[in-house]
Amino acid sequence: MKLIKIIKNNLFIQNFVSSIFAFIHPYLENTVSKYSAIKKAFFITAHDETLGDYLEFGVFTGSSFNFAIKINRKIDKIFYKKTNCQFIGFDSFQGFGEIKDIDQNPTFKSKFFLVNKGKIIKNIKKIANKDKVKIIEGFYQETIKGKNPEDLGLNKARVVMIDCDLKESTFLALEFIKSCLQRGTIILFDDFHYYKGDITKGEYGAFEDFKRKYPEILFRKILNYGYAGVGFIVFKI
Question: Which pTM was predicted?
Fold first, then answer.
């Protein structure tokens, strides 16, 4: 009888927890996990003294960009040092623009990520306060394709958040940051596992192409996060 009572109580707890967990919106759960990944990346790079800038490709509402600013302040205090990290965001704020055939996906539409640019930039500047922040506005074909990071005042990359979704824009971002990479740079791909696992598409496909083009740069996978996010660290360059 005691065993039956334990089983019944356990089933009640399981059902209660499953109801609560089902209530949590997937987008919220994914966002919290994204914050955790950024926090880990800043901690690891601070621990190993991998100094440089935070680059984010795909700012959207500025949520993760603002979190990166906040957590860097916290990590600086933990390690009792000022890392002088710049925060550079890249986004058109007009959605994807033209989506090429290789990047077609039932969820990704041209204006899917269209947002109020003025409101987002104003909020970022408010959060940033005295932190060094740059927002590079425009489609990547115009702002970073064939460009030199040093021309934009960028130093070595410390943490890079790639939230581009599409293969074309992801590859442009990777090409752009190549000269900024160093041993210890952490790259977070926020949408690594979409396109039904097709290894030629999306962020996964772009990363594979980049590694084939530059085999001298070696990466190690260090974490999975959220619903489709993966983090890599540069260990040889």
Answer: 0.90
Query: Any idea what the CATH number is for the domain that residue 218 is in?
Result: 3.40.50.150
Q: Encode pLDDT of 185-237 as tens digits.
A: 999 999 999 988 899 999 999 999 999 999 999 999 999 999 999 999 999 99
Answer whether 153's CB lies under 8 Å from 18's CB. Answer: no
Where are the extended beta strands (E) located within 94-165?
133-137, 157-162
The verdict on residue 159 lying in a domain is yes
Residue 18 counted as domain residue: no
For 121, 132, 161, 183, 214, the CA distances from 50, given in Å and listed in that order, are 28, 18, 16, 8, 21
3-state secondary structure 223-236: EEECCCEEEEEEEE
**What is the C-alpha to C-alpha distance for residues 192 and 206, in angstroms, rounded to an integer?**
10
Task: Please check whether residue 57 is in contact with residue 187, taking contact to mean a CB–CB distance below 8 angstroms.
Answer: no
Query: Quick one: which of 199, 145, 148, 185 has its CA closest to 169?
Result: 145
Which has the closest alpha carbon to 166: 96, 90, 227?
Answer: 96
Q: Measured on CA atoms in the order 57, 189, 38, 19, is the torsion positive or negative?
A: positive
Q: Which amino acid is at 46?
A: A
